[in-house]
Amino acid sequence: MARCIEVGQVGSIADANDKNLADIPVGKPCVITKVNGDRTVRKRLMDMGLTRNTMVTITKVAPLGDPLELVVRGYHLSIRKYEAQTIMVQEVD
C-alpha cells in the first residue's frame, strides 16, 4: 500500500489542474485543494470533513445527478451538486 502513496509539498498543487468535485467521474479518487462558496456553506462542508488535502471519492450519483455520495475519511457523505461545484479538487492517478 505504501507504494501507492505519493508525497508532495502542501503548496505544490497547481490551480491549473483543479476541477470542481461535481465534474469528477464516479470511482476516481481526488484530493481537495480548495473549498469556495458562501461562508456558511464553506464552514458546513469543512465541519463535515471536506478540508484541504483530504482524499475524496465519489461512489454514487443519483439518477438525476443530485445528490452525490462521497467517501471522505472512511465514511459515506451525501452532498448536493451545487455544493460539490464549490469544492475544487485535483485527480489522483
UniProtKB/TrEMBL annotation:
**Classification via SMART domains:** FeoA
**What name appears for this protein in its UniProt entry?**
Ferrous iron transporter FeoA-like domain-containing protein
Give the transmembrane ranges: none
Q: What keywords sit in the KW lines?
A: Iron
**Does the keyword Iron feature in the UniProt annotation?**
yes
UniProt-listed InterPro entries = Fe-transptr_FeoA-like, FeoA, FeoA_core_dom, Transcriptional_repressor_C
- Keyword Iron on entry: yes
Q: Which SUPFAM superfamilies match?
A: C-terminal domain of transcriptional repressors
User: Which Pfam families does its entry note?
Assistant: FeoA
All copies of the Ferrous iron transporter FeoA-like domain together span: 19-91
Tell me the GO molecular function terms: transition metal ion binding
